[in-house]
Structure formats: structure tokens, C-alpha cells
Automatic annotation (TrEMBL):
Keywords: Glycosyltransferase, Transferase. InterPro entries: Glyco_trans_1, Glyco_trans_4-like_N. Gene3D superfamilies: Glycogen Phosphorylase B (3.40.50.2000). Coiled coil: none annotated. It comes from Dyella lipolytica. It comes from the Bacteria. This is Glycosyltransferase. The keyword Glycosyltransferase applies. The lineage of its organism: Bacteria, Pseudomonadati, Pseudomonadota, Gammaproteobacteria, Lysobacterales.
Length: 440
């Protein structure tokens, strides 16, 4: 079965490090012939398992080509339909119109890239889209032209929650939400959000959580009188890292007898601003220290928990799916503090940490640190954290099931449909730059 895995950049950098765990499970099934098609490919790629192919057709964008597809998008039915939605929702404005045009042009360009790929390599049985974004919409267009049999898509956080986008606008999603053969959401909460916000059919959305490997050993706790707290995230406003700084200052001021260290892993545009805030706020507090380790490979982060005593993991984001960063910490036996947003409540509870309110104050966060740092059953909490991952978020369990689900979708009437799609490709002939996209 020919599987086209559409990614933003994987196996190239940055991001999408969680695919590194999933991709191994695709190689275990001999029925799957997987080709990864990233939209961006710069620098040196990460290694991929034997049996996984990489094709850069969707990453071969040019400046001239982008202008051409912008012009094509301007006169497309897709763009006209999106303008209609913007007017009805009262979101129309210069920014949203330009975003609609840009996203429409990307979809058309990526659909053409898929056409070229199919003409060279043959029809795609299943287009598996790691993000519910422009590439997944392009796959839908390719399916409508008879080049792809089935389209499935994951949906995470940035590609799900409108509040994480400027002007609460998610371009084009409502035009395509009913066109997938299956959407895989990370949690029941995400599934409900798809239905309530975009009108997705509940019967066509399945919960398919991510997962992490289970290490053979667990992270060790710090010595008495020492507290080591770790956070892992890209430094963006949505992560609310300033609240961690303020909460740590409050906690350290209330517990002079505890030597507290905060380690943050992750880069991003606000990295220096948060570092400066920490220096300003924590200067003069003798029992607190911090370090910013910047962006690290996913494998290095996993090893960090096993080689360094870590007592708590903290997340203060205002919007999340089910963060793999929390899963990785808990898999090593580290209790977590995190807000009740997205699907975090599936991970964090009083059994294995503290579930904060949706918008916790610095004092609430400080109180949660206090509760866990001084908890009389700290070792039980660590065992419970690991048990949550074993029961619900093991990569061996979740990715094996996910691969089986995708292959089952692709196997329906496979031979009959493949013959039909082969004929469609041959009749269509080689793709050309233009095309009447009003058909979409």
C-alpha cells in the first residue's frame, strides 16, 4: 500500500520531533510503502529508518512559482468561498483576506506538487497528513482529481484551536473539514472542539493520541533540600513562561531552606526576553538558580531525565493538545504541573501532579510547586506518573494502533480502486502549471 506522509519539514529541521517515535512503527508493517513528503527541506535531514523513502517534490517551491499561484488563487472558487465565510463571520479585514489568499495559493501549489509526484510514482493509496493544514487540503484536492484514494489527517493544537491564531482565524478549514476519510484527534476534548467549532462529523473523527517510549529506568529525585524543576517548550507568548519565573520567585521566597533550580529547554523568539526576566526577578534570591539550554534534539531531552535528577515538570501554556513534552517527563517518573487546557487533564491529575486552572496565577503555580515539593508521598506520585504513560500513552500501543487504523482505511476496496485511480492518472496526463481550480 502506497502511503504518502505529508509533513511540514520532517525529516528536516526544525520541529516534528515526535514523528521520530512514530515512524518506527510504519516500518514494522510490510504492507506499507511509506514516502515522506515535507513541504520545507533545508539543511541536513535527520536519519530515517530503513524502508522509509523521502521525496522533495512538495518542497520545490520557487519565488516565481509562488507569485503565479497567488494569481491563480485570486480567481479561484476556493478563495471566493473563503471571502464569503469571512463576511458572514464578520472577520473580514486586510489581514484575514491576505491570509486567506496566501493559504489558498499554498494549497493550489501543493496540490500541483502532488500531481507531479503521482505522475512520476503512481497513485497514492493513502495520503497521511501529519497536520490539518494546507498540505492536507492539497491532498483533498488531489483526491478529487483521482490521484489519491484516501486522505487521513492528524490534528494537534496550532492547527486546531482558533484562539492560537491572529484574529481567531483558521484559513480554509471549514471548506475541507468534511472531505477527509478520517481525522485523528488527540483527545475527546479535541474531537468535541472539531464538531462544535467547525462542524466536523463526530463519526468521522477518531481519538488517536500520540505516545512516547517507556525508558527502562526512571529519573532520580534530588537530594533532600534540593528541588529541580524542568520546563520544555518553544518560547512564545502562548506558553506564558513569565508566570513560571514569577511563581518560582514566590516559592523560593517562602522556602529559604530549599535550593531550587529551574531548567528550561527550548528556543524561540522570546528566549532572550524570558532569560532577561529571570535574571532581573531572581537576582538577590540566594536559593534559586536557572539555566536555559536552548533547542535540544528530542533524543537528548529523553536522556536528560535519565541522567539528571528531576523533581517536577511544569507547563503553563494557555493552549495545548496533549503535550508530548509532559508525556516524556512522566514516562521517566517525573510528576507534572500543568493547566487544564486542551487534553492535559487526560495526563495530569492529583494522582501524578497538580492540574491547575485554565489561567493560573503565579501564586497558584507557586502553591502547586509547594504541594508537590513537600508532598509526603513523592515516590508514589513518581510511580503514578509513569503508570499513566504505561496505561494510555505508550508509543508501542498508540502508534501500532494508529498504523493499523490507517492501513485499514486504505485497504477498503483497495485493488478495485487502485485500478480505477491508475486509469485516472493515465487519462489526466502530465500536470501543467495552470489549471481550472474553480472545479474545487
Amino acid at each position: 500500500m502506497r502511503i504518502a506522509m505529508l509533513t511540514n519539514a520532517y525529516p528536516y529541521h526544525p520541529g516534528e520531533q515526535f514523528i521520530e517515535d512514530e515512524i518506527e512503527y510504519w516500518t514494522k508493517n510490510k504492507d506499507a510503502q511509506v514516502t515522506v513528503l515535507p513541504a520545507v527541506a533545508t539543511g541536513t535531514p535527520r536519519s530515517v529508518p530503513n524502508g522509509i523513502s523521502i521525496e522533495l517534490e512538495m518542497a520545490r517551491s520557487t519565488a516565481l512559482g509562488r507569485w503565479w499561484f497567488m494569481l491563480t488563487a485570486l480567481f479561484s472558487a476556493m478563495f471566493r468561498n473563503e471571502l464569503g465565510y469571512l463576511r458572514r463571520s464578520r472577520k473580514i479585514g486586510v489581514y484575514t483576506v491576505l491570509r486567506a489568499l496566501l493559504h489558498t495559493s499554498k494549497v493550489i501549489e501543493q496540490a500541483k506538487s502532488l500531481e507531479r509526484y503521482v505522475w512520476i510514482h503512481g497513485p497514492i493509496d493513502v495520503a497521511y497528513c501529519y497536520w490539518n493544514e494546507t498540505q492536507s487540503y492539497a491532498a483533498v484536492l488531489a483526491k478529487r482529481k483521482g490521484l489519491v484514494r484516501k486522505v487521513v489527517s492528524r490534528v494537534h493544537g496550532i492547527d486546531l484551536y482558533e484562539t492560537r491564531r491572529a484574529y481567531a482565524y483558521m484559513p480554509l478549514k471549514r471548506q475541507f473539514i468534511h472531505a477527509y476519510d478520517r481525522i485523528f484527534a488527540l483527545s475527546e476534548e479535541a474531537k468535541s472542539y472539531l464538531a462544535e467549532t467547525y462542524g466536523a462529523s463526530a463519526s468521522n473523527v477518531k481519538v488517536g493520541p500520540l505516545g512516547v517510549p517507556l525508558p527502562d529506568i526512571l529519573s532520580a529525585p534530588s537530594a533532600d533540600g534540593v528541588l529541580h524543576i524542568v520546563s520544555v517548550s518553544f518560547c512564545l507568548p502562548v506558553k506564558r513562561l513569565d508566570r513560571i519565573v514569577e511563581a518560582l520567585c514566590l516559592f523560593a521566597g517562602q522556602h529559604n531552606q530549599i535550593k531550587t533550580t529551574w531548567t528550561h529547554i527550548g528556543g524561540g523568539p522570546l528566549l532572550e526576553k524570558i532569560r532577561q526576566l529571570a535574571e532581573t526577578k531572581m537576582t538577590g534570591i540566594d536559593n534559586i538558580s536557572f539555566e536555559f539550554m536552548g533547542e535540544l534534539p528530542n533524543s537528548t531531552i529523553k536522556k536528560y531525565y535519565l541522567g539528571t535528577p528531576v523533581d517536577l515538570f511544569i507547563n503553563t501554556s494557555e493552549s495545548e493538545g496533549i503535550p508530548v513534552s509532559i508525556m516524556e517527563a512522566m514516562s521517566a517518573g517525573v510528576p507534572a504541573i500543568a493547566p487544564d487546557v486542551g487534553g492535559i487533564s487526560n495526563l495530569v491529575s492529583s494522582r501524578c501532579g497538580v492540574l491547575l486552572s485554565k489561567s493560573p496565577s503565579s501564586q497558584e503555580i507557586a502553591d502547586a510547586i509547594d504541594k508537590l515539593a513537600l508532598h509526603t508521598q513523592r515516590e508514589v506520585m513518581r510511580m503514578n506518573a509513569r503508570k499513566v504513560i504505561e496505561d494510555s500513552f505508550s508509543s508501542a500501543r498508540n502508534y501500532s494502533r494508529f498504523v493499523a487504523d490507517v492501513l485499514a482505511i486504505g485497504s477498503v476496496q483497495e485493488e478495485v480502486e487502485r485500478s480505477y485511480y491508475d486509469q485516472r492518472v493515465q487519462r489526466a496526463g502530465p500536470p501543467h502549471k495552470g489549471g481550472n481550480y474553480d472545479a474545487y
